[in-house]
Amino acid sequence: MKPFLYIVYDILFMDEHNHIRHEKNLKLAFILTLCVLATEFFGAIISKSMALYADSGHIFVDASSLLLAWIAQSQIKKEPTAKNTYGFHRLGILTALLNAALLLIISIVLMYESYLRLIHPEIVNSKLMILFASISFIINIIIGFKIYKDTHQNLNIKSSFFHIIGDSIISFSIIIAGILTYLTRLYYFDTTIGLFVAPIIAIGAFSVINETINILLEAVPKEIDYIKVQEEILKVECVKNVHDLHIWSLSKSFILLSSHVLIDDKIKDSADLCCIINNIQYMLSKKFKINHTVIQPELTMCKKNNGYCVAHQI
C-alpha cells in the first residue's frame, strides 16, 4: 500500500488516483458479488440448504452495501461547492455506518434462523452444498484480495471488506458442514453455521461503527497522538506556545488541524512569519500525514491585548 504523499495541497485533489482505483475495485466487487448471489440462491433452491439460503440473503445485503459504497466513492470525487465547502467526504462515512448497521442486523437474523433450523432440521443435498459453497468461497476470496489494499485508506471500503470476510467465512463453513453432513448424515451441521458466524460478523460491524462515530463526533483520529503533535509544533524554531489545538477528520484519510501558535517577539517581518507557518505545515504533513491545516500566528506582545492587534496586523 502506497502512503499519501502530499505537503501543502488539499487531499481531495491530490488523492485522485486512489479515488479512481477505489471506484474501479468497488465496481468489480459489486459485479462479482452479484455472480455469487445468483450462484448461491440457485444452489439453495435445488439443495434445500438453510445455510445457502441464509448466505444468499447475506450476500444480497452485501451487494446492496457495495452498490452504496460505489455510489458514495463516485460522489467523493465531486469538487466542493458553496454549500458543501469540504466536498462530500462524509457521504462515504455515512454509507460505512449504514453498512455496519446492516451487518449487525444480519448477525441477529442469522442467529435466529439458525436456532430455528437447529430445533427443526431438514434433509439437505450435501453434495450440492459443497459445490455451490466452494464456488462462492473462491469468488469471495478474489473480491477480498482485490479491495483489501484500500481498507486502510477508506473506511467505507473497510466496511465492505468486512462484508466480504463474513461471506468467505460462511462459505467455508458451509463447505465443512456439507462434508460433515455427507459423512455422518446428520443435518444439524447445516444450521450451526449461523451461530458460529454471527459473532464474527458483529465484531467487524462494531469496529466500523466505532470508527465512523469517532469521525462524526470529530474526535482526534486514533492514529494521531494529540500530545505528540503539540510537542512537535513547539520544536519548530521561534514557536513559544501552542493552544486552541484541534485535530479531526472528514474521512479515514482526510485529517485536518487548526491551532493558535504563539511566535517569538523578535519575528517582525511577515515573510519570516510565513516561513515559520510553512515549517509547521511541512512538519505536520511529513510526521503525521496532516495535510489540511489552519495555523493562526500570534505574537508574544499581542497576547496582552486579548484580541485583534491592528498595529501588527495579526
UniProtKB/TrEMBL annotation:
Against SUPFAM superfamilies, the record matches this protein to: Cation efflux protein cytoplasmic domain-like (SSF160240), Cation efflux protein transmembrane domain-like (SSF161111)
What residues does the Cation efflux protein transmembrane domain cover?
A: 26-217
Give yes or no: UniProt keyword Protein transport: no
Recorded protein name is Cation transporter
UniProt GO MF annotations = zinc ion transmembrane transporter activity
Q: Which keywords does this Swiss-Prot/TrEMBL entry list?
A: Ion transport, Membrane, Transmembrane, Transmembrane helix, Transport
Family statement = Belongs to the cation diffusion facilitator (CDF) transporter (TC 2.A.4) family. SLC30A subfamily.
Question: Where is the chain membrane-spanning?
Answer: 28-46, 52-71, 91-112, 128-148, 160-180, 186-209
This protein's superkingdom?
Bacteria
Q: Which species does this protein come from? A: Acididesulfobacter guangdongensis
* Localization per Swiss-Prot or TrEMBL: Membrane
Residues of the Cation efflux protein cytoplasmic domain: 221-298
InterPro entries, sorted: Cation_efflux, Cation_efflux_CTD, Cation_efflux_CTD_sf, Cation_efflux_TM, Cation_efflux_TMD_sf, CDF/SLC30A
Name any GO cellular component annotation: plasma membrane
Topology in the lipid bilayer = Multi-pass membrane protein
